[in-house]
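Single Protein Entry

Contents — chain, fold
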Amino acid sequence: MARIATDTRPSEARLRLLTTATRIFYAEGIHSVGVDRIIAEAKVTRATFYRHFPSKEDLILAYLREVHQMDRGAVDAAIANNPSPVDPLLAIAGSIAQNIQSPGFRGCAFLNAAAEYPDTDHPVHQEIISHRRWFLDTLTMLMAQVHEETADPAARHFVMLRDGAMAAGCLFDPALVSETFLRGIEGLLRINSERQSTESAR
């Protein structure tokens, strides 16, 4: 019996809508951008838009999930390419610093979205929390390889340094912000590595 081939790739129109929304939402905010503009710039019909995204909220959630996958790809690559305990964390920090200095940087997409969706029960806010929980859990796992006892506070410290750098990076000199952020991460890792070394020597 002949096997029927199926194409599971997203349609070109959906990709165009999501790419357009990702660019505009990040650059200009979510509430300020209407569906009509997304449709016009993606060059699709209104019917096509609603076939792929029944509401603007569905598109917003897809946008945040797309950004999450990009962030996750960078983190996964840092982990895969750096087997030692400290190096993956330095690589993640380096990727963040590079992002801060990239053209068109407008801060953290998730923090920006959180400012527009403060209601903790809203699906968009829940998507933001899910992303941040993944990031914190990943850092905690990596920090545990540096010094297990302080993994939780060290990971939270990393997130706070990252959040501050992402906020400052679009307000001040991004190169200086990146340098300050990387020094903070290096200091955090040095302290926890020294704790591990001291305990191992006992």
In short: The CA atoms of residues 113 and 160 lie 17 Å apart. DSSP finds nine helices and no strands in the chain. The radius of gyration is 20 Å.
